[in-house]
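Late entry, written up from scratch paper. The run itself happened at the end of the previous shift, but nothing got recorded in the book at the time, so transcribing now.
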Amino acid sequence: MGKSKKSKVRGGGGDDLLDSSDADSVGSSSTALSDLSISYATENVNSHEFVLDKYIDALYEKRGSTREAALASLVDAFESFMLGGLVENKYATLLSLFNTSIKKGSTKEACLASRAIGLLSITLGAGSSSHETMVESHPQLSKVLQTWSDASKMISALDCLAVVTFVGATDLAETEVSLKAMWDVIHPKSGSNVGTVRKPRPPVLAAALSAWTFLLTTIGSWRINTDSWKESVTLSLSPLNYIIHCIIYLFYVFTICQANCVSLYSSRSRGSCCSDGCW
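Output as recorded:
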């Protein structure tokens, strides 16, 4: 009389007893925690979306400093959070605003926008959205490289072009278009209709070489259209150009090794320089 009934719950050899009321309490707590986690996750997503919309609104502002602050915050958000689900339906708007910032904004704004485009492409991942990102941003990025604007602006454009092409290109032809734009910075053409040949500053040259070789190593050597690069690999007497081309040739060799083509030359070497397609 007066004593509550208890259901015995034994573990492997244990003598612990658990009240049915205690079991109900544990179950209720688990459900509450689950609901709380779902609620927090939903609130977190909604919070990120709200903040993202605020940044987008700020990019429409006329004041350059406001747009710069919004771009800096967006770059930080891309680098700190997984925004894939949030930007999938907003990437076209973001891309349009980023391109406008590159075209009309200050050097700082253009650099931030270029970085934002690259991060947007990575966030979207390979697919139709990142391909559209590459197609829509390519003309504006190429224009920055063709006009030889501020060095930092060119470096940002080169980095961005490498990333969007790496993620969004669907065939070799699209990759070669970006390679050509980068090569025109490394080795500007001379001619009567070109005028004075500009020489890239060392930081720009380094960025262009890095971007160009990065894309080069993403394609197999057997797929490269050598006819389109005959002019590019012609050595000049300039010591600087000689060094540049030596670096490029090294990357060509590295690419060939990756494609397991080095065996063609193994009979002429003193020993096997490659094993299983690598040095």
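Residues 3-15, 25-44, 233-240, 260-279 have pLDDT under 50 and may be disordered.
(Scratch paper discarded after transcription.)
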